[in-house]
Design a protein that fits this description.
Distance between the termini: 21 Å
Number of strands: 0
Helix content: over 70%
Largest sheet: none
Strand content: under 5%
Oligomer: single chain
Shape: elongated
Radius of gyration: 11 Å
Number of helices: 3
Amino acid sequence: MDSVKCEALLTAAEQGSLTRAGEILGYTQSGITRMIRSARAQATREGHRPALRA
């Protein structure tokens, strides 16, 4: 996972909001969502089983 996707994921988790993470990092909410989905897909392809929890 590249550092931008990692930062997006961590910021969203810390803030509890994709919208707030986007505001902090300078992306739209949909951009943050795409980064997180891409990171999850990459992890799955590499044999990891990431769990998403609300």
